[in-house]
Amino acid sequence: MTPPAPNAPAVVVDGVHKTFAMPKEKVHTLKERALHPLRRTGYEVLRALQDVSFTVEQGEFFGIVGRNGSGKSTLLKCLAGIYGIDSGAISASGRMSTFIELGVGFNPDLAARENAMLNAIMLGLTRSEAEQRYERILDFSELHEFEDLKIKNYSSGMLVRLAFSVMIQVDADILLIDEVLAVGDAAFQQKCYDEFNRLRDEQRTILFVTHDMGSVERFCHRALLLERGEVVTLDHPARVAQEYFRLNFDQAESDGGRPVEEGRRGDGSAEVIEGWFEDEHGERAETLVQHRPCSYCARVRFHVDVTDPKLGAIFEDTEHRPVWTTTSVWHDEHTGQFAADEEIVLRIAFENALAPGRYWVHTGVSRRGAGEDTMDRRDRVASMIVTGLRGHGGVVDIPHDLRIERTGAPHAAAREPA
User: Fold this and answer.
1) Distances (CA, A) of 238 to 219, 227, 233, 337, 385
2) 0.70 exceeded by the pTM?
């Protein structure tokens, strides 16, 4: 990498090209080579990156998204120095920490302590710093009872816990993170997301490769969309997410599915037909009263057979701030089997703790599994107005008890008149 200029952005990628030579015919054995010494193997050129340019500012959480084979992981490896580039330039200002592939740099015949120490030192810590932070690594990874076990006996989830825990203990200015967190369980993923929020608040620079558009919209300041090694768009995360789904499902209409429309994404194999709110009497209502029972309902039609789909909703205020989200996975991941052309109603009953104002709801249905395989997500499918007297700056009015308790008799000096 070329050295950055003073006060430069965190990362600058300028006109980067990267190609790979793919052999058309492989020679598998020494016998084949001996029998055909003059046989020439042809090559096909794979253009993994083509004139890729972008800038990441200091303290920016930057998403890199794209379909499989789009070049996003290749780009991250070029940034990390794992791959050389054919032309162009990459500059970085600050120390990098790389979390690209699960278990890279680990010795399978060593236990957690030795691997954690070696990786921390390779990522820039001194031996004494690594020793001081080892307990924090174990605490975050929750692997205390397995620290003496050789990591060749670790599960993929345990490996990602250890690797991620080491990475966040390194005092790096720039973090390069590929989407390996999908192998972790839900509780550990939430710990990682909490860590992302902390790093973002500390204004660390993070380049994050992912397929999960929810994470892009949740964490990233901006995002880059790649397709066949070329930059499609560099924009606000919501706009990039929309373009990502357009690329993934641009054949939905020709395949008989529903065409993608503005504010909507998915492959058309399911359809959120409508959404509405109901008051405590089960009547449809556009205005709901604070602290009374109510429900949000959505009618969904499946166009294909599906098993255990995930359904959920995100409620947001007029400033586009998400104030509440829920998903069927949190209640029961086995939602049932549904046939093509079958319709269901998603019903979310809750006590209305929202502050007065207008709220919108996004509704989605996706296939079960890791990552995001969206069948349909419809933005702002319904809205409601909450009325009430208790709204003083917050977005929720949580039922609570407030009391003032005396701690004892006042100090004698406090009772004396001035």
Assistant:
1) 11, 17, 12, 31, 25
2) no
